[in-house]
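Fig. S4 source data, part A: sequence.
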Amino acid sequence: MTGFDLIIHGGHVVTPAGVLAIDIGVKGGKIAAIGQLYPDQGNDAIDATGLFVLPGIIDTQVHFREPGATHKEDLHTGTRAAVLGGVTSVFEMPNTNPLTLTAADLQAKFDLAKGRAWCDHAFFIGGAAENADKLHELERIPGCAGVKVFMGSSTGNLLVEDDPTLERIVRNGTRRMAVHAEDEPRLKERKHIADEAAHPRAHPVWRDETVCLKATQRVVGLARKYGRRVHVLHVTTAEEMEFLAQNKDIVTVEVTPNHLTLVAPDCYEKLGTRAQMNPPVREQRHQNGLWRAIAEGVVDVVGSDHAPHTLEEKAKTYPASPSGMPGVQTTLPLLLTAAYHGKLSLERVVDLLCHGPQRIYQIAGKGRIARGYDADFALVDLQAWRELKDEEMGSKVGWTPFAGSRVCGVPKVTIVRGNVVMRDGELIGKPIGQPVRFAETFSPSS
């Protein structure tokens, strides 16, 4: 009789203690042993020689468009793209149709994901005027990632632009609240810039740094008033980073690979509306500010903000073209490529993609390679380089803004709770995704 269900041996394992040449034993979907093991101690074994074993990536910002816009993406295809990119857990956003505003809306998404999601998943509840007084209960439903608020208009109809409603949302809850921080009144005042330009190069001019800084300052002020922890998503400006660095006792910070990699105005000339997202890709000085914030520890998380639209939709004349781009499959290779070029360490990559999400959202049993944690892993080859291609994307829309880019750190194997779900670019078995567990939840019936 063997001791483990699975042995991963011969690899370089990225642990909280650093990169170690050790083996991992898996039993019952959890990490049961870390140390010197032998393949014959398990029912199955993976030879990870030459590979680095990372915790499974946790992408805390994806838009999988189901229900309501499944011609762009759905929970099956979105999670397919995720596991192809070494992602083992995703947090999905509430700006679907219908919006995710009630316990019934959350349950409907869990029902849609059952038997169709390739990786584990959680869903945000949207913060809005109609549910603001119930959010302290809704945010604690098992599998709920927390509350998400849109302060600026983006894809969908979920918008909180006035301070009285925002204040109700902030004070009616205790879990960390995720925020899209753009100032809607200023966006409305400046919309003529986009209309007159009719080209996406105007996108960061219309949605300028002041649009973001004003909204971020507003929500942080309310957070401090009520002692509410907030997580500011996809920060794009150097000015915001300077402000947020002074408020780290109550604020956590996300950046995206898009803003770390693409630069205005070049990306808009090369990619057109495919580079259009909210908040926008900005000039080099802002990107430098984001990398500086990563180096200084201001940034806690990198999330993809996977937000797919079809190429037909993207081909509309700006600003009628929708904002957003796919990215859940390319986040890990892009970050590992940045590490290869010396912009951050491998350990920092794992902190931003695994430890950080676990820490700030209080995820139970995920995000690190440690005994007792879920056996979620991404096995990557840091010596392998490949060119990203549209046709290799698992997303339903079938394109990436990074097509033609050469990346290293190719995900070779993705493992979810001890089950191999992807090997060498091929999906294995059937979708086994389950709801993510959190420390800060309770049963509505309790």
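Fig. S4 source data, part B ends here. The first helix runs from residue 75 to 84.
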